[in-house]
Amino acid sequence: MNITAKDIAKLAGVSRSAVSAVLNGHFNKVSLEKREKILAIAQDLRYRPNPAALGLAQKNTRAIGLLTSPFMSNIYSDLVSKISFLLREKQYHCSIVLPSDAEQELEAISHFESFGADGIIVACALNDIRRLQNKIPLVSISPYAGQYETRVDLKLATSMAVDHLRWHNHQNVGMICPRLSVVPQQWEGYVEAVGKKSAFRIEVTDNPRFSAEFDHLFKDAGVRAWVVTNDLLAARVMRYLISRGIRVPEDAAIVGFDGAAFAEVTAPPLTTVVFPAAKIAESCVQILLDKIEKNDLSFREPPVLVKPKLHIGGSCGCPVIDPSTVHWSGQPITFDNDGDENASVF
């Protein structure tokens, strides 16, 4: 059973205000005899203050709820880690919950509201965040269309990849992706960059005709450069091409997206648009703290879009600088590092 200040007051034969004063350290407001009695009862009963009640009394609990997917990629894992680090710097405690469906997400949001958290960050959004009647400030960085208040500018990311391949004199640039429905903004950015009449796309999810479609575009349409919507898929595409005797980048150039650190050990090293996790984390935390300060429960529009950068490997046609030594300083997840000497902003 949870022991309350009211229970202690009843056992000590004093008012609740006296108990509250003692438990909050205002000893001068209560006589020595009553103070010792209250503290003795609280210790015997192992009294612990209620976090939500403390939040109501002190205006905040310095607690933030962070909801993300249990199926998140390494890139999103890196983003969540950076958000948590920034919150700790601001002296906030971050509790991470991984709901697997929309109902669990709503339960988690309700839990943080009841607990007295100061705010919530939603990194997945299994519900329509815009229609939530949240009781505390909330910020969404969901990847889904219309569900985010800050995120990477995906349309710009894809157009940057196209522009770089065009810089290598590739007139026909295609796009390889999973189902188009999961990358709508990357597709929009690609179409804007190449034009509708020059748009060539291959979807790989449940597509038994991938090889036939690739051969048609490669041989008949002269598509010799490809934007691929994530780095793991880009690495698999490169392996597929090389297994068929198609050289990368001499015969077919590739640019991926994510900035995954494994791209430096693909053959050749993958050129990739880097997901700017650190800057998105900064934007997300700043928006949340602004909302907390103003008790702003609204969904902010338009979203804050963060500009990505391009990490140059060799898969695009740029020269590869072979390492003169093997250097090891840990195992970074991504190239999201301002000191990355191979990163360029176009």
Summarize the structure.
The chain has helices at residues 5-12, 16-23, 32-44, 51-58, 74-89, 102-115, 154-167, 184-194, 210-220, 231-243, 277-294; strands at residues 63-67, 93-97, 119-122, 138-140, 150-152, 173-177, 200-203, 225-228, 253-258, 271-274, 304-306, 309-311, 343-344. The chain is α/β, with parallel strands linked by helices and 346 residues long.
Description:
With 346 residues, this protein is α/β, with parallel strands linked by helices. It folds into 3 domains: 5-49; 60-151 and 278-305, 3-Layer(aba) Sandwich (Rossmann fold), CATH 3.40.50.2300; 154-276 and 308-344, Response regulator (Rossmann fold), CATH 3.40.50. Helices cover 39% and strands 15% of the residues. The chain contains 11 helices and 13 strands. The chain has helices spanning 5-12, 16-23, 32-44, 51-58, 74-89, 102-115, 154-167, 184-194, 210-220, 231-243, 277-294, and strands at 63-67, 93-97, 119-122, 138-140, 150-152, 173-177, 200-203, 225-228, 253-258, 271-274, 304-306, 309-311, 343-344. It has a 7-stranded mixed beta sheet with strand order 7-6-8-9-10-12-13, with helices on both faces. Helix 10 links the parallel strand 8 (225-228) and strand 9. Helix 1 (5-12) packs across helix 3. It is elongated.
